[in-house]
Design brief:
202 residues, 4 helices, 5 strands
């Protein structure tokens, strides 16, 4: 069997073939998984909307309003209506102040800005510490819960910063990021409330 001559030309050719095969394979895998991933994300989004606002009978996804916060972050507002009347708004909001990156949540507000509920969508916080935000700020213990509070009236910052909310133990940065996302979501909702109430969300 003849031995292929070891030369720069042959090495480059081999590298090109390997790269082409790898690129084609990655492209194929991406194409195959793109739609399932998008569908799973959309399903998670819809479930989060249902969880954080009062009962509704419209399709909030059809009225979604995408805005940019004053921090330059993309925010999505999902109006929830019962027989045409606004009963709440689910806000997909984000903070870039997390310990390990962005903290993305879906927070539901009643029309007056009171927090109905929330659902954490995505974060990269420390397991066992920052990850506790999933339930921490719903727990009726001490000053942990933000449910029923209104960011326009209540100081929803951590007690260490002079606020009214108990931070997650050993995860103050994650707590700040979570509450920052809530604030950004609230402000984005209030700035666009008139348009939403008039059915002007596009």
């Amino acid at each position: 069997m003849a031995t292929i001559e070891s030369s720069l030309k042959n090495m480059l050719l081999t590298l090109f073939v390997i790269t082409a095969i790898a690129g084609t394979s990655l492209g194929f895998v991406y194409k195959m998984t793109k739609e399932p991933i998008a569908a799973a994300k959309a399903k998670k989004q819809q479930e989060a909307i249902k969880m954080v606002v009062p009962a509704f009978n419209n399709e909030p996804g059809n009225e979604v309003m995408t805005v940019t916060s004053k921090e330059g972050l993309p925010i999505k507002l999902f109006p929830a209506r019962e027989d045409g009347k606004l009963v709440g708004v689910a806000v997909e909001t984000v903070s870039n102040k997390g310990f390990a990156g962005n903290v993305s949540i879906m927070v539901g507000f009643k029309p007056d800005g009171t927090i109905e509920n929330y659902q954490v969508l995505e974060h990269k916080e420390t397991p066992g510490l920052g990850t506790k935000m999933d339930a921490w700020f719903k727990t009726d213990k001490g000053n942990q819960s933000i449910l029923g509070k209104n960011p326009g009236k209540d100081n929803l910052t951590v007690s260490k910063d002079g606020g009214d909310v108990d931070a997650i133990t050993a995860a103050t940065i994650s707590s700040r990021a979570f509450l920052d996302a809530v604030r950004i979501g609230y402000e984005s909702f209030m700035e666009n409330k008139d348009k939403i109430e008039k059915g002007g969300a596009q």
